[in-house]
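Sequence only, no structure available. Ideas?
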Amino acid sequence: MFASLRNRLIVIGIMVAVSAYNLLPRTTVIRVRTETGAVISDTVRRVPPKKGLDLQGGMHLGLELDESNRVSTDPARDLELALTVLRKRIDEFGVEEPVIQKVGDERIVVELAGIDNPARAKAVVQKAAFLEFKITDETSALEKALPSMDRTLQTLGVSGGEDAPAAPSAVQQLLGADTAGGQQDTTTAVVGGVLSSLILPAIGAGVSPMPGEYMVIETAYARVDSLLRLPEIARLFPRGLEYRWAAEPTSVGVQAYRFLYVLDDDPIITGERLVDAQAGLDPLTQGAIVTFDLDRRGARQFGRQTQAHIGDYMAILLDGRVQGRPPVIQSRIDRRGQITLGNKTIQEARDLALTLKAGALPVPLKIVEERQVGASLGQDAIRAGILAGIIGTLFVIVIMVAYYHLAGILAIVALAFYILFTLGGLSMIDATLTLPGLAGLVLSIGIAVDANVLIFERIREELAAEKTVSLAVQEGFNHAMSAIIDSNVSTVLTAMFLFQFGTGPVRGFAVTLIIGVIASMVTAIFVTRTFFMIWLQRKPAMTTLSI
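Reply:
I predicted one. Tokens follow.
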């Protein structure tokens, strides 16, 4: 097939067209079809090749374990697990050439190039993504504990303040007060009690009541939460139960409320058994949802627990916050479930899905260092890299033309194709060009002409043996082939080790070097030989070759 000059030119034309196409700036529209049939579109402006943090700027984060609420029993192990989870999340997040590595024994460094929404990136990195399913309390335990909590607060000197209504609250009316006189017991409501005045039955929000659900005026939410966290109050909370807040406030008329839920302490299942999560839209409300799948063992456990709690309400918690109102379990649920996100956007649903798929952090992370790498650094690096590449290439051109004359000119023309193929290949595989990657590109230029040097020296040997120009060219390419392949394969293997065991910029260097070596083999063996064939076809009677 490649013996024909016409076929060779067609192949070269195709490679040039593909490379040029991948280097053209264009707008890409990403469409995702949800399970409901709705199509979600996202437009991305792409100017290839992609550039790394050192060339276009981005975000630098220093992260450490946040043990303020959850103490790590093995910090070294938890840091390694967090490193693995972060790598999975950022791979799904689609950041170009991220650097994620451990520095010392206590810190993880994350460098993200080209980030246009730093707040979203930080949310994805820091989100614990701990998923739980818990049954709401049906014993009215909080109502029974509120009087003793209020008495304790009274002894601590905490009064109702402005948030507390003068009249008895709805909870107090439900519990009733001891009007018969005599000594109060531990279940008697305290008139004007702080918590009894602020924690209201959810029926007041105009919704159907469910066990274990209460509401607090949004303006009083922070105060109630701080009171419930007091050690003296936390000791009075019923054993085997815990309280959790809704993730978002709910508007009732002109008033905003935060729902409070009392739940069983032990979850029926956690997100450790989750194997997949996908963002989508609810077909009825068109609100953002996340559907999830559990593994086989998790499906059996979930099915067994939901079967035992048919008719009960099940809260879905993410990082300790209840996601939407708990639904009632109407039948056994096995492998598949759904998280309703209310008013959140589809982008937030995607971010939640990718963090759930990547897994939960063993311990939350806190940002201890944050820097924005400016675009000026990228411009300086690009300018210096391009200058170094131009100077190196000029030296190669001068030496090749001065030493090999006509053959050197053919090699330089092939070198232009090599640069086009290399950049087109990097863009085609969506590789990211870093400053070390530019160094790999310049290095592979030298490798490209090195293959030509081997070929030209063999041609000179064949010409010295008084063979015809056509035969000398053919034998020169054939005899140099094994040496070119051996040297280039060795270089590719070395670059593969760099890619496998290196991080960040080292991998960028390795990718550029691998693509460059492959392109150099194509140009030296195929393109340069095609140019020789064209030249010999134009001058078939040529008896000497300027080499």
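The mean pLDDT is 80.
Hope that gets you unstuck.
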